[in-house]
């Protein structure tokens, strides 16, 4: 669809959409606790308040008026609205959206529903770049499990290995579009081409780290299923799987005999209607960042995220440059000879350590100066990349409201430790 050029991104106006920023702290922890906009907070509040009420119909009259149909509780309409909002976010249709309380729960449900496809003579390909709580959902399936390994120097996921891992027995390939702590972006197109040339396997792509920074177009990514954690976009604590085609539901086992129809409900996990009522306001908020007033919500959110990407790509470049010029700072996947061939395609988030200074000390110094960051968890990947040897690390992730002043303030405080 013709979307036109992204409009100018006005960060001052965007900051006004987040009432939580009025407390004076500088939030650089969007990877774990993104700020909640006033629109989302109000939407969830209203959804909880009205969920048990009966929905109203527009008054109609005349001999040719259409029947209104049975009344529904307002809470039931929230699920439909949430599916439509997720569809607008990623460029899909609402009947292909499966809601769930979290992405690990949805992955676990999917692994059970995939039993007709996964036999003893079949294989699945998983990625060690992914969070363990995601890939563990498929690690115990009744199939041969093969692992795609990230580069320990750069933290990237090399695409060439999928040509070796995938073959005619492969039924599922699951990996993340980006790393939530390192900011590395996977070569999705290269990986998808390798898979398609070797197999008819289903592909499951987690876009949770990518979606807060870039417009998502389902068809362009080439995956069969997209996973997205809506909480990591500043929304309610819900997640969604989006399928390429509703015909895929025919291939899946139903999780409950109550939902045996070949629709999304057969693999859906119950979620709160009050939280579901916040998904529409979330996508409306993302569309309002820089999407303008014209066009459908899908057009506006795509336009808005394009403008956000341009703004945060520039700001992220400063983040890497400013911290990278400090001699004592080691940015995982960027600093050192092993990272010399690292790609420039990175998200505006990174994990760093200060030589000779424990991560807890760095984190506390930042906190004492009004900077909210997080201590990097000891994940298997970060451990193999040497985080323990340097005394731990701190993760920084930018949000739509961050400014160049925030980056300069961060750099000054880190420099005082070096």
UniProtKB/TrEMBL annotation:
GO terms for molecular function: lyase activity. Transmembrane segments: none annotated. InterPro entries: Aminotrans_V_dom, PyrdxlP-dep_Trfase, PyrdxlP-dep_Trfase_major, PyrdxlP-dep_Trfase_small. Keywords: Lyase. Residues 79-226 form the Aminotransferase class V domain. Pfam families: Aminotran_5. The keyword Lyase applies. SUPFAM superfamilies: PLP-dependent transferases (SSF53383). The keyword Lyase applies. It comes from the Bacteria. This is Cysteine desulfurase.
């Amino acid at each position: 669809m013709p979307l036109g050029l992204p409009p100018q991104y006005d960060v001052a106006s965007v900051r006004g959409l987040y009432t939580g920023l009025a407390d004076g702290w500088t939030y650089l922890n969007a990877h774990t606790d993104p700020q909640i906009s006033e629109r989302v907070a109000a939407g969830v509040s209203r959804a909880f308040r009205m969920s048990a009420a009966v929905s109203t119909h527009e008054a109609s009259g005349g001999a040719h008026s259409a029947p209104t149909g049975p009344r529904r509780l307002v809470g039931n309409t929230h699920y439909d609205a949430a599916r439509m909002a997720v569809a607008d976010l990623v460029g899909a249709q609402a009947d292909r959206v499966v809601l769930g309380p979290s992405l690990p729960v949805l992955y676990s449900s999917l692994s059970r529903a995939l039993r007709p496809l996964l036999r003893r003579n079949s294989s699945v390909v998983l990625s060690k770049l992914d969070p363990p709580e995601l890939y563990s959902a498929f690690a115990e399936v009744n199939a041969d499990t093969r692992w795609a390994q990230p580069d320990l120097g750069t933290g990237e996921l090399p695409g060439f290995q999928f040509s070796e891992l995938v073959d005619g027995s492969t039924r599922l390939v699951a990996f993340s579009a980006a790393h939530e702590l390192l900011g590395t972006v996977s070569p999705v197109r290269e990986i998808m081409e390798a898979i398609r040339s070797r197999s008819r396997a289903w592909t499951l792509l987690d876009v949770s780290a990518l979606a807060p920074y870039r417009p998502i177009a389902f068809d362009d990514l080439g995956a069969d299923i997209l996973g997205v954690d809506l909480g990591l976009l500043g929304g309610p604590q819900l997640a969604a799987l989006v399928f390429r085609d509703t015909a895929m539901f025919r291939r899946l086992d139903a999780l409950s005999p109550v939902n045996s129809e070949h629709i999304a409900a057969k693999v859906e996990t119950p979620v709160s209607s009050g939280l579901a009522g916040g998904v529409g306001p979330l996508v409306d908020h993302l569309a309002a960042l820089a999407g303008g007033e014209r066009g459908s919500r899908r057009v506006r959110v795509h336009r808005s995220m394009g403008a956000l990407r341009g703004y945060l790509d520039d700001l992220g470049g400063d983040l890497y440059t400013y911290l990278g010029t400090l001699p004592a700072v080691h940015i995982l996947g960027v600093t050192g000879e092993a990272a010399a061939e690292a790609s420039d395609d990175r998200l505006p988030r990174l994990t760093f350590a200060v030589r000779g200074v424990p991560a807890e000390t760095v984190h506390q110094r930042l906190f004492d100066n009004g900077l909210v960051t997080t201590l990097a968890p000891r994940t298997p990947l970060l451990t193999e990349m040497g985080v323990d040897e340097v005394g731990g690390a701190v993760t920084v992730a930018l949000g739509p409201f961050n400014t160049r002043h925030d980056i300069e303030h961060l750099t000054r405080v880190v420099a005082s430790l070096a």
